Backbone:
């Protein structure tokens, strides 16, 4: 009985094979690396609105941080009649992954967004070779540079207040979102390097990582999810050993994103910092999510770099429209006339949405 | 069950002899025992009506490709479930072996090649790599099996530990030689050909070589399970370890070998994974065991132990993949996919246990 039913089950797929099926209307498939990323959720909300306004049929698919699963989703969507793919890759910074997606897509145009598909220009080759692909994102190092400068400026202006133990050096903690992610690597590097450059210019000593034993000079979300949870757990643990009573309190915190910054603030608040009349340990993030803006308004967080979710969603939606109207993705990018967007100087298929510092002013 | 037509005739003959009460029971039992398949059939018909593309050569090819990718791990983990255990380390073992495969088989002229001293990729070197990763998988499986058998630890605990240890090794491995956690890419064309070369075409869908390998592995596992004394011992230990011991089965070695064999299968999964994802990241393999365990359970490999069939596992993987493909094509949010998958596993397990309870 079971075997017969199983047979029928597979046969149903084969039976109606003669029915030719073509999706007449445009069908846009949007692929996300996972569903709970805070910043991308804000992009998604905007993008859904924009695509609703365009009146196109679209679906959101989430890969749960699994690149192979995303490729399965992409292949399935293609056989399901999708004619435009908007892809937020899981394995960022790797042109081979992008190439694998393009191979699956064939003639179907692909708009990559947010997560970079190559480091140091390795993505240009893939984008230049592909006829129907483009990338809409941010210039990966820019957020790190901007955050570093913001941290440096703030520390120079408030040096003595930040230096809790008065030893003349600022000890800092750094939280990295994910190993092997380009954005995370650049933010971790430049967030501290550029701050040190500003400090050096002002004649101040460089930042000192709070834990001399840790040669990485960062703590990373081991699940690669850039999560508040990971940051809170690290910070809770750190504060057991590094606190004011021991004279080695962490005096500054730099985070790869606002989610992690929120986690750090939560941990500090449990320890009596960053609340109404307590000392404020400056915490910096990236993304300018609504929660982070609220924390900055309350004075519990110090600064973030605004990653423009509305601009990102609009850039994608405008490109989607242009491509559906028949333009090649590269030409679609070129037709976007907006001061928030710039075409990468070294690749016509790459559009950058500008970052902006945000300290609540 | 050898001949479905004779079987049907026999059932219809029996049915005509039944009285009214038995007839009603025949139908309710029949429907309940096959509820999952009946629901799936209805679901497929619904999907085909809503999304005609679901029923096409390309779609069927896509199903075959995905089943072939998910099957080996399920075949491996099924042995652990037959022993009333489980294996949580499967995904990470797959991730580790995928990383080793990637590093061994990077293009020789690739700028970011991790170990430049490795030989040029050719047929021999691919064979060496395949054997190496299978050995690595088997070794981790051996560790699992040893601790389960020697110290009577629950496999949940043992494999949870090896899962974490393996992930640690993966992170360490990705940081080697200044790789700094970057994904491993630049896989050689020879490797891609070996795993993903075109076997044949099904409409627009390319059927890659690894479909053939999956078929071979399924046949091999069927043979091991059904035709060897090791396979028989496995079921004996799974049904009742004490009884098996008394009747002369070496429970220790059976347990160790089942886990080792499972590890070898994860090693093979890792070998294929690099091709499937285009490159290998540290997160490759995360939670892969969940799908494999779910497929086994749906296919009737019971956690009660001692029951399960290779055909059931194949069916379980097919059902999970059909759900994935259908919901993706219907444009159902993946958020709902989790809910539906969870509900199906719960339903499958309950129906499975119902049969077991009725027998009792």
Residues:
């Amino acid at each position: 009985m079971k075997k017969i039913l199983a047979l029928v089950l597979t046969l149903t797929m084969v039976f109606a094979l003669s029915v030719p099926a073509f999706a007449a209307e445009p069908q846009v498939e949007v692929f996300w690396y996972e569903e709970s990323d805070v910043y991308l959720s804000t992009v998604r909300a905007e993008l859904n609105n924009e695509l609703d306004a365009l009146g196109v049929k679209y679906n959101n698919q989430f890969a749960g941080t699994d690149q192979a699963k995303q490729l399965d989703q992409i292949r399935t969507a293609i056989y399901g009649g999708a004619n435009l793919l908007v892809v937020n890759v899981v394995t960022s910074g790797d042109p081979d992954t992008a190439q694998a997606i393009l191979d699956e897509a064939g003639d179907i145009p692909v708009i990559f967004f947010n997560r970079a598909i190559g480091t140091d220009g390795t993505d240009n080759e893939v984008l230049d070779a592909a006829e129907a692909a483009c990338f809409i994102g941010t210039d990966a190092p820019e957020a790190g540079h901007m955050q570093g400068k913001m941290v440096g400026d703030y520390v120079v202006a408030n040096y003595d207040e930040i230096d809790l133990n008065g030893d003349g050096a600022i000890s800092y903690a750094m939280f990295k979102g994910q190993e092997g992610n380009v954005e995370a690597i650049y933010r971790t590097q430049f967030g501290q390097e550029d701050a040190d450059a500003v400090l050096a210019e002002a004649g101040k000593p460089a930042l000192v990582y709070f834990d001399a034993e840790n040669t990485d000079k960062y703590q990373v979300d081991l699940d690669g999810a850039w999560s508040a949870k990971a940051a809170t757990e690290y910070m809770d643990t750190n504060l057991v050993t590094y606190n004011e009573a021991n004279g080695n309190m962490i005096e500054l915190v730099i985070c790869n994103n606002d989610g992690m910054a929120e986690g750090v603030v939560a941990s500090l608040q449990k320890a009596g910092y960053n609340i109404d009349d307590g000392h404020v340990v400056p915490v910096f993030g990236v993304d300018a999510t609504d929660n982070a803006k609220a924390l900055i308004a309350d004075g519990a967080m110090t600064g973030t770099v605004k990653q423009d979710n509305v601009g990102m969603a609009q850039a994608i939606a405008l490109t989607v429209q242009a491509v559906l109207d028949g333009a090649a993705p590269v030409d679609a990018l070129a037709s976007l006339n907006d001061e928030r967007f710039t075409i990468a100087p070294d690749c016509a298929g790459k559009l950058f949405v500008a970052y902006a510092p945000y300290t609540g002013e | 069950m050898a001949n479905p037509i004779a079987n049907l005739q026999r059932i219809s003959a029996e049915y005509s002899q039944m009285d009214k009460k038995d007839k009603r029971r025949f139908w309710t039992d029949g429907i309940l025992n096959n509820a999952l398949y009946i629901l799936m059939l209805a679901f497929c018909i619904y999907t085909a009506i809503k999304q005609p593309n679901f029923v096409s050569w390309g779609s069927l090819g896509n199903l075959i490709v995905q089943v072939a990718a998910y099957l080996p791990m399920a075949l491996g983990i099924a042995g652990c479930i037959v022993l009333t255990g489980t294996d949580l380390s499967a995904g990470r073992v797959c991730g580790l072996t995928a990383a080793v495969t990637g590093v061994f088989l990077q293009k020789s002229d690739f700028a970011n090649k991790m170990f430049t001293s490795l030989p040029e990729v050719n047929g021999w070197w691919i064979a060496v790599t395949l054997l190496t990763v299978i050995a690595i998988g088997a070794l981790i499986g051996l560790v699992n099996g040893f601790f389960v058998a020697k110290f009577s630890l629950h496999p949940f605990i043992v494999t949870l530990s090896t899962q974490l240890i393996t992930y640690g090794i993966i992170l360490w491995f990705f940081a080697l030689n200044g790789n700094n956690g970057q994904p491993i890419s630049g896989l050689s064309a020879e490797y891609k050909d070996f795993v993903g070369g075109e076997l044949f075409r099904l409409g627009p869908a390319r059927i890659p070589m690894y479909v053939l390998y999956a078929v071979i592995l399924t046949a091999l596992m069927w043979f091991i399970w059904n035709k060897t004394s090791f396979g028989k011992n496995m079921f004996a230990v799974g049904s009742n370890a004490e009884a098996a011991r008394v009747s002369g089965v070496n429970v220790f070695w059976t347990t160790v070998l089942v886990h080792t064999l499972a590890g070898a299968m994860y090693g093979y999964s890792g070998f294929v994974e690099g091709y499937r994802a285009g490159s290998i990241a540290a997160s490759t393999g995360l939670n892969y065991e969940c799908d494999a365990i779910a497929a086994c359970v749906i296919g009737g490999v019971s956690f009660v132990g001692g029951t399960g069939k290779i055909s059931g596992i194949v069916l379980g993987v097919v059902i999970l993949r059909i759900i994935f493909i259908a919901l993706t094509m219907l444009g159902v949010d993946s958020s709902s996919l989790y809910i539906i998958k969870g509900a199906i596993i719960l339903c499958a397990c309950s129906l499975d246990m119902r049969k077991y309870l009725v027998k009792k």
Residues 182-201 of chain A form the longest helix (20 residues). Residues 13-23 of chain A have pLDDT under 50 and may be disordered.
